[in-house]
Write a structure and sequence with these properties.
Number of helices: 1
Structural class: mainly beta
Radius of gyration: 11 Å
Largest sheet: 3 strands, parallel
Helix content: under 10%
């Protein structure tokens, strides 16, 4: 299945994003060399290690997020 989230990995950036995504599962973007992400406004949960081991320098968490898993953003440049 091709979606903007998966296609953007090749460009080291996540945007645009589908606004109907409410959960990013554990390890989804683990170690993908991402440098920038834009999270969906309706996002509610970010799983464990979801963005771990990338090269992110900034992340804006939407106000709708109620759960962030352990080490979701570990080993980045934050």
């Amino acid at each position: 299945m091709s979606s903007p989230l998966y296609l953007a990995i090749a460009a080291q950036s996540l945007s645009p994003r589908p606004d109907n995504v409410t959960t990013i599962s554990n390890d989804t973007f683990f170690n993908n060399q991402l440098t920038k992400i834009e999270l969906p406004s309706k996002l509610k949960e970010i799983g464990q290690f979801a963005f771990s081991q990338n090269s992110l320098t900034e992340v804006k968490i939407p106000s709708e997020v109620t759960k962030i898993g352990e080490s979701a953003f570990s080993k980045n440049k934050l």
